[in-house]
Amino acid sequence: MAVDLESPSNYLTTRLRQAVNWGRKYSLWPLPFGVACCAIEFMSTVSSYNDISRFGAELVRFSPRQSDMMIIAGTISYKQAPILKTIYEQMAEPKWVIAMGACASSGGFYNNYSTLQGADHVIPVDVYVAGCPPTPENLLFALTQIQEKVEKEGLVPAAERHPGRIEA
Amino acid sequence: MSQKLVDKLQQEFGADILAVSSQHGDETITVDKDKLLVVLNHLRDHEGCEQLSDVVGVHYPDRDQEFEVNYLLRSWQNNVRLRVRVHTTEGEAIDSATGIYKSADWAEREVYDLFGVDFADHPDLRRILCHHEFEGHPLRKDYPIEQGQECSRPEHLFNDEDIARAARRASGIKPEVGGAHDEVHPSDLLTVNLGPSHPATHGALRVECLLDGENILEAKSEIGYIHRCFEKEAEDHTWAQVMPYTDRLNYCSAMANNAIYALAVEKMCGVEATPRANAIRVIVSELSRIIDHLVCVCANLVDVGALTNYWYLYNTRESIYQSLEGLCGSRLTTNYARIGGMSHDLYDGFADEIRTKLDEMVVGNNEVMKLIARNRIFLDRTVGVGAISQEDALSWGFTGPCLRATGLAHDLRKSAPYFGYEQYEFEIPTGTDGDSHDRIMVRMAEMVQSRAIILQALDNLPDGPLNIEDHSVIIPPKEKVYNTIEGAMNQFKLVYEGIQVPAGEGYGFGEGANGELGFFCVSDGTGHAYRIKVRPPCFPIFSAFTTLVQGRMIPDAIATLGSLNIIAGELDR
Lengths: 168, 573
Ligand code: SF4
Description:
The complex is a heterodimer.
Chain A: E1 2-3, E2 12-13, H1 16-25, E3 30-34, H2 37-46, E4 69-73, H3 81-90, E5 96-100, H4 101-106, E6 127-129, H5 136-153, H6 158-161
Parallel strand pairs in A: 3-4, 4-5, 5-6
Antiparallel strand pairs in A: 1-2
Chain B: H1 2-13, E1 17-23, E2 26-31, H2 36-46, E3 51-59, E4 67-75, E5 80-88, E6 94-95, H3 104-115, E7 119-120, H4 160-170, E8 190-194, E9 206-212, E10 215-222, H5 230-236, H6 243-247, H7 254-269, H8 275-303, H9 308-328, E11 337-338, E12 341-342, H10 350-372, H11 376-382, H12 390-395, H13 400-404, H14 412-415, H15 436-459, H16 478-483, H17 485-496, E13 504-511, E14 516-523, E15 529-535, H18 538-543, H19 545-549, H20 554-564, H21 568-572
The structure holds iron/sulfur cluster (SF4).
Residues 36-38, 74-75, 101-103, 108, 132-133 of chain A line the site of iron/sulfur cluster.
């Protein structure tokens, strides 16, 4: 981006791609895949004190068709796994995924017959957030990480970012 | 009280009662499998045992009759509890108690799913927590805890036959909207899934509805989406290590779970917490009740379209969270109680901070009441919606605010006081109609009572030690551990081998935010539990959900679900 101060009309030059990325970065629409305790902290993150809208991501959409950032908040069981996969596939490209908390990242302290040992066994994850549950600040930090990715990488579809993970 | 009941039963049934035992204040009768229904029927009809709280299976692989199934009965009117026990083995079915207690439906399904015990004449004996492709029964002692089984696809809850039957039934009935139907064809009906990832289910649960227009002809619910094997994990960890797992049962009120679990194990060990620890437990339990009710009410109001209230109510919750974080270092998953005491004492300034926050809560709640109390939309959406009668509520195993909304003033803090609840003055708010509106109003009123209890507890906080002196139960203070060899060894043994809880069984329970939260513990005298069964308040409540919404419209189902406050962590464990 460059500002042309010499010119009488003070205009801004940039590349279209950069401008789009900049816009998109501040308008991520989250899809909360809230299944367990972490979802409660997701609720805290969107409520007034932590206020996720400061980062432009307040438009929580429960329809996968309308959202581009999935936040997996909670433990994924084997029973839930096919559903997670379906919902992820229903999201339109480009899309990003945050695994919020120990359970979504690795199964957490549930190493047992019913718990999937991390959501990334089923779908590709872009950012992992530590914590059980992560604090709202942690989740907001993860959001800024996604924003950085959006800014740097642009609108690369998830299939290209995670080669071999998603069937076309 | 329950001793008297046992004597009466022995006279009545004589040799059919195979054994009688009493431990930790609980009476158990063992009856012949074939006589189970007769005894249960008698208890319900003649001894006032209106409620079957839970059905608990235990596996003893070395016995001839390897399964033990316990029916936990409660009579609210006589304030009596009793356990009825039967023994069985692979291939020998127990008669299903579904005809006597409605709550037996899901409770027996759970025993079937986790242990493989068969129940004869059960109307719908399917798996409930594990997925439909699961093989084996995970709570049997020979099932390895880490042996996961993948699930390839979700199950369809309605088959063609169900749909055809529903269509036949709907023919000729005038639905609420859309005019009269002469004949309904199966293809006119629509199946719609609410959940397991749906904004209004507030957690991972699924209700499949068979719709005629917007009317729900039939609904089936499915749970188990976040079955995290609390009970298997509990057998795999020492008694003290189970504490953090209890946080994640009802994660909206973790402190209360911690305290009640500690109470249950203390009962097993025959120790009692100090007065100071008890008072702190009361304070944190009531704070938990407040934040639990807040999240329930605010989410319920969002569901019926009243978003503004969410901000008012959630702010209080957020500020209480910050105090809880000060107490234990964590907002949600608190792990604050210890068997024999608490992990930390209150911090300086806690009392004043809480007093201010509770005042703020009253302001916020009053604002909300102004917005909803006479709000036409709110009333239309909730009054008469999802109503349940007293009798049904008892039979389905309702406890807590959902039971009190029907007008029954049953509260374990009054009827079986623990943590010294008898010292505090408070009222039990009740409703009249048992509908969604009353459930919300009961919760709003309970927050006021909880505030009163907390203020009394803060004013009269006893001095004295926080933790008990018995260091076979609780680790010694840090100075001793660091400076003396006995202290170090004591700590080492407790951490590595666990608390040696005396062999036996006991049931510790209390009034959780949603109702009766209980832990049925069996110890074989080692540092690990032989079996811990949680009695989660919302499991029986959710089992009644489909009957509350059948014949109503989809938006009613949403309003009803929100008011029942189903917390998936506790539902699925
Ligand atoms: S990471 Fe912790 S808080 Fe989050 S879902 Fe898992 S157990 Fe709950």
